[in-house]
Amino acid sequence: MQLNSLIKLFNVPRLLLSSRQSNLPLATVGAQSNGFHSTIPLENAKAATVQKPKRPVNAYIRFAQSIRADLAKANPSASQMDLAKLTSAKWQTLDQPSKARLEEEYKRELAVWLQQNAKYLSQLTEAQKEELKQDKLQKADDKAKRDLKRTLKQLGRPKRPINGFLRFCAQFKPKPGVTQTEHKQQMKALGEKWRSMPGSEKERFNREAEEAITRYQEEMKQWEDKMLASDNGDLVRRKNALLNPAPVPTGGKARSAKKEQPGGAKSGRPATGGARA
């Protein structure tokens, strides 16, 4: 189980009630949750509002949900990543009967979800199905970008430095805890102050930015050389990868010669001259 899923779980403010513990219909349960919850029993499905059913979470996430509150209480200073690692360690030591019980709950609710989802899909129009397909593709693309960003960070890819203006803003950045409106107002004021500054005062920030970008380019070149020398050449910017030229197809002239015969006739057809007898 990836740690980022657990981190998302620990960010949920409270344990989500399963449908068996709640009298709320599917629409209400889905509205109150943030992604992790169980589906309602099949016998109550007709009473629920028709909408896309939520897929039940697997055995591991169920276990994480059950210990999340106690784990956070016992480790108040732990980060979300630390809590995720602690959960993973506890799962490894969990007895097999408990794991089997959680797995059985998941399979039972999954069977219910499969029926609900089939009914939901059968009620969609072709346009809605296409929209659902595009949404799924977009989510997959977003996930691929997040995974790539995480991989690049783990491999130590140099981070591009900020420009002179952002260096100036970093000295007067808004204090944490301000509202979004206050943040925009402060950033707008910084932009106006930067535009009114004489070039001599901007020079220091711009010079620092130029020096940083020079160091970044050197570090980037070293990092890409390292990636090309390993099995991670696909992570290098294509313009910097020294790719071998594509091989020239052999026998090209021979095939071209077969297509045309002397006199302009095509291959396989005798040249004709004048009218037929």
Automatic annotation (TrEMBL):
<feature type="domain" description="HMG box">
    <location>
        <begin position="53"/>
        <end position="121"/>
    </location>
</feature>
<dbReference type="InterPro" id="IPR050342">
    <property type="entry name" value="HMGB"/>
</dbReference>
<dbReference type="Pfam" id="PF00505">
    <property type="entry name" value="HMG_box"/>
</dbReference>
<dbReference type="GO" id="GO:0003677">
    <property type="term" value="F:DNA binding"/>
</dbReference>
<dbReference type="GO" id="GO:0005634">
    <property type="term" value="C:nucleus"/>
</dbReference>
<feature type="region of interest" description="Disordered">
    <location>
        <begin position="236"/>
        <end position="277"/>
    </location>
</feature>
<feature type="domain" description="HMG box">
    <location>
        <begin position="158"/>
        <end position="224"/>
    </location>
</feature>
<protein>
    <submittedName>
        <fullName>Putative transcription factor a mitochondrial</fullName>
    </submittedName>
</protein>
<feature type="DNA-binding region" description="HMG box">
    <location>
        <begin position="53"/>
        <end position="121"/>
    </location>
</feature>
<keyword id="KW-0539">Nucleus</keyword>
<dbReference type="InterPro" id="IPR036910">
    <property type="entry name" value="HMG_box_dom_sf"/>
</dbReference>
<dbReference type="InterPro" id="IPR009071">
    <property type="entry name" value="HMG_box_dom"/>
</dbReference>
<dbReference type="GO" id="GO:0006357">
    <property type="term" value="P:regulation of transcription by RNA polymerase II"/>
</dbReference>
<keyword id="KW-0238">DNA-binding</keyword>
<feature type="DNA-binding region" description="HMG box">
    <location>
        <begin position="158"/>
        <end position="224"/>
    </location>
</feature>
